[in-house]
Structure formats: C-alpha cells, structure tokens
Design brief:
The chain is mostly helical. It has two domains: 81 residues, Winged helix-like DNA-binding domain superfamily/Winged helix DNA-binding domain (Arc Repressor Mutant, subunit A, Orthogonal Bundle); 71 residues, Iron dependent repressor, metal binding and dimerisation domain (Diphtheria Toxin Repressor, domain 2, Orthogonal Bundle), CATH 1.10.60. It has eight helices and two strands. A two-stranded antiparallel sheet has the order 1-2. A hairpin with a 5-residue loop joins strand 1 and strand 2. It is globular.
C-alpha cells in the first residue's frame, strides 16, 4: 500500500491548525474536559482548585479554561462555585476518557515503559476511527485464543530484545 501518492504532508502544527479551523477542541481543552469528566463521574461536580491540582496548572489558568469550555457549551461554571458538565460535556468527556484508556492499553500491550506520558502526548492526534480500530484490535487479542498465544510470543520476544539491547 502506497499512501504517499495523494498525501499532503504538513508539520505537526499544520495539522493542529486544520483541526482548529474545523472546530475541534485543542489538546489542552481535551485534557481539561477529560479530567473534569473523571472528577464529575466520581463526585457529580468538581472545583477549579481540585482540577488545577491534578493537572499541575495554576488555578488562574484553570479558571480561564473553564470560561472557554463554558462558552463552547461543555460545562456550567461560576467563577466561585462548582463545575458541572452539560450533556455535550458528558458525551465529549466520556469519549475522551475512553480514548485515553484505549490508547494506554494499546501502549501497554506494545510494551511502553511510560504509557501514561506517551498516551497524554499522542492521544490528541488520533481520529475516532483509529481509536475504534485500536479498541477492535485490543478486543481481538483479548477474545481470540490463538491471538492471545501469539501475543504472549510477541511479549516474550520483546522482553528478550530489551535485555539484549541493554
């Protein structure tokens, strides 16, 4: 398969600009919304202080982002009160958390030594279709006995290679 015939190559930033023009959330907005969803799923609401603590950002930065996400209709936010997700925010947050978990499980399967950091860095670049394909692949390895055996063989080979590379 030659994907280069009709390819229009861009820089990483170029792809980000296209996404922004198409109305997609920025990676930072996605990170906030994912964490808000995590917290609201647990407690029904969250606060700026808790959010800024968990994302390691200043409360003032978190407040600014809350205003942006509220303007986009993802949450209800009063500067001095609680943060609540709207239906659109719950739907987006749920997808973002599922995407995160799928990518992290895939990276763990592949042998990532720092799956959280790598997930945080790459999850924003994946399309919903690619995430669905990764989930299908993970489900396949989990449910198909011959594939589980091949996966064990792969993991053993990876560990052997890691030992010889060091």
């Amino acid at each position: 398969m030659n994907h280069e015939t009709n390819a229009e190559f861009r820089t990483f930033r170029g792809y980000q600009l296209i996404s922004r023009r198409e109305g997609q959330l920025t990676p930072a907005m996605e990170d906030y919304l994912e964490m808000i969803f995590r917290l609201c799923s647990k407690d029904g609401y969250t606060r700026v202080g808790k959010l800024s603590e968990l994302l390691h950002v200043k409360p003032s930065s978190a407040s600014k982002m809350m205003m942006k996400l509220a303007e986009l209709g993802y949450l209800k936010y009063d500067r001095y009160e609680i943060i609540l997700l709207t239906e659109a925010g719950r739907k987006a947050g749920k997808y973002l958390l599922e995407r995160h978990n799928t990518v992290e499980r895939f990276l763990l399967l592949a042998g990532s030594s720092d799956s959280l950091e790598e997930t945080e860095l790459i999850e924003h670049a994946l399309s919903a279709k690619t995430v669905a394909c990764l989930q299908t692949l993970l489900d396949f390895f989990r449910s198909d006995t011959p594939s589980r055996e091949r996966l064990k063989t792969f993991q053993a080979a990876r560990q052997t290679k890691e030992k010889t590379d060091h």
